Please model this.
Amino acid sequence: MDRALARREAEGRPIRVAMFGAGFMARGIANQIVHSVPGMRLVAIASRSVTAVHRAYAEAGREATEVSTMGALEDAIRTGRPAVTDDAFLLCDAEGVDCIIDATGAVEHGAQVTLRAFAGGKHVVSMNAELDGTVGSLLRRRAEQAGVIFTGADGDQPGVQVNLWRFVRSIGLTPLLCGNIKGLQDPYRTPATQAAFAARWGQNPTMVTSFADGTKISFEQAIVANATGMTVARRGMTGLDHHGHVDELVQHYDADALRALGGTVDYVVGAKPGPGVFVLATHDDPKQRHYLNLYKLGEGPLYSFYTPYHLCHFEVPLSVARVVLFGDPVLQASEPRVEVVTTAKTDLAEGELLDGLGGFHTYGQAERYATASAEHLLPMGLAEGCRLRRAVRKDEVLTYADVEIPPGRLVETLRAEQDAMFPAVAPTRASAASGELVGNA
Model:
């Protein structure tokens, strides 16, 4: 990849990238592309706040031209001037853009821009796990129909897990668990409790809250499950507290139970080295198990593989290069296997208008897609802006019948199409019970 990018630089044919979103992570991506990725140019950024876009370019040491028309944007791209706009749809329609990065966590807006990008013949590298976890299986197929690629990103924990999963499979092992390491898990955190942390790091309090309350990791593990065909052992995942080394987790899971489920996604709190990811895998060949023991991976039946870090924005441009230069997606949903369901963070009154991800009202939990479908559970990606038809208690999981969904949103239309495309199969008695055998701490 590095040599291919170097050739593009030498030939004067850099990959032309546009991005929508201008928050904390987007600013890091902009700085990375501008200074550290030869063979790639960040030609334009769009955000509803043009001030935020100017800041992203300014922090990268570039002065940008503000544009509001297609002609002005395409002229800026042709002449090599970075462009900023409040209209993300311009990026989707413009000539001179090879790939678009979604650096938002906005489900409805992300869906609108992503579909427009497909229509404009643009690949999309998404850091929007919330959108992917809600309608990713459908978006993948829409992208394929348009002849482009829709993929998650390197660097973010889902991409790091799937890269590791691919490596483990490539050397002949069978992955049985894809795991995420967290430092904190408290479903009752709010933007008020996380305000000081967010201010310290220059981040959005609601985004920080979605990490702390488990919503973000639920979406991240859902998209890993949907890319690998894995599931969850139970609603909310196992979520062990383990403050030892990640290699010790081979003693805390039952290989036969994991195999019976077809593999699971999970998370642990406090494991070292964090905040990385891990894959637990097995090997059926006793000769190869002997070699694995020689190479200090133990006697099995589970073997631990891990990456001790995830470097989010540093690696996102590599995803763009993989897609544009090699047609190689990082991770894509196949059939939906895991859903993120809406759960009350506190007692909520009838008539309450639900706030968004990382807010005061709800948190997300990973659940099997078939179970969520059978129980008509409300996907977390659809919850924002819904009005409660009845009072709900803290920790109660909401159903479609509990809410009035705002009319006219694209994401509901896409979700209905995805549900029709992938009708859920009810879980068998054996698969439902086997989750009890996982996570024997």
